[in-house]
Amino acid sequence: MKANIETRVTEISLGTLTVKLKVVGNSEEVLSKSVNDENTPLWVELWPSSLALARWLWEGPDLKGSSVLELGAGLGLPGVAAAMKGARVLQTDHMAEAMELARETASLNGVRGLRTAVADWRSFGITEVFDYIIGSDILYHPELNPYLKKIFSTNLRPGGQIIMADAGRIDSLAFVRQLLLEGWQVLEEHLPVTQEPFDYRISVYRITPPQRRPKLRLIRRAE
Fold first, then answer.
1. Residue 42: its pLDDT value, please?
2. Strand 156-166 relative to strand 185-195: parallel, antiparallel, unpaired?
3. What pLDDT score does 220 carry?
4. pTM for this prediction
């Protein structure tokens, strides 16, 4: 049985920025009606990692004119924050309902030009390359991580960066360690997030792919 989704607008503070966010008002009911792991609507919750990533983006690098791909966008708070900072953002999620709410949030905040797409990592048809690839709480599924790494390699512009926020799940840590073993560069910092009644410590990872070494050519000197 599928629960009807009820929505409301709330305000989220990211320090110097307040975002009007369209959220699911009956998220616990919707989650309780999910029938399997494949289609569990995790997007109906605003997760602490999403808050941390949105705040990091707002307080972090100059994004004006940059292109940003958001994976597993859910309610879309980080992508909207990036767009409000001047980035050109494409938000993606495999749930169409999530993308609908993300578009409504963009409209509530006067954001223009933010695009959305329904996309499955296992058959990712997007061929554009981006200056940044961002995501929150998306590294924890071992079966999907190989597809995710392929997107990192295919859709990141040379010299670009991947920004991921995670609550420290075991499988997420294993994935990050594997990237390090394969020569990826990873910088980690921690952000505290308070979401009543809990305080969370979120890791924000800045990830860059292994440097491609130029092919060596044998040059024969004329005699």
1. 81
2. unpaired
3. 55
4. 0.90
First to last CA, the chain: 81
Determine, yes or no, domain membership for 17.
no
Strand-pair category, 18-24 with 130-136: unpaired
Give the H/E segment covering residue 50: helix 48-59
| Residue 60 covered by a domain | yes
Q: Could you tell me if residue 26 is inside a domain?
A: no
Amino acid at position 24, single letter: V
How far apart are alpha carbons 132 and 126 in whole angstroms? 15
Other residues' Cβ atoms within 10 Å of the Cβ of residue 95: 17
Tell how strand 185-195 and strand 67-70 pair up: unpaired
Which residues constitute the domain of residue 63? 47-208
Task: Check if the beta carbon of residue 25 is closer than 8 Å to that of residue 7.
Answer: yes
In the Cβ-directed half-sphere of 186, how many Cα atoms lie within 13 Å?
Answer: 18
The confidence score (pLDDT) of residue 37 equals 58
Q: What is the CATH number of the domain that holds 154?
A: 3.40.50.150
169 falls within a domain: yes
Amino acid at 173: L
| pLDDT at 49 (0 to 100) | 96
Q: Is 167 exposed, middle or buried (0-12, 13-18, 19+ CB in 10 A)?
A: middle
Report the distance separating Cα 81 and Cα 70, nearest Å. Answer: 11
Mean pLDDT by 10-residue block, N- to C-terminus, for the chain (223 residues)?
78 95 84 66 89 96 97 96 97 94 96 93 96 96 95 97 96 96 96 85 96 59 54
* pLDDT value of position 100: 94
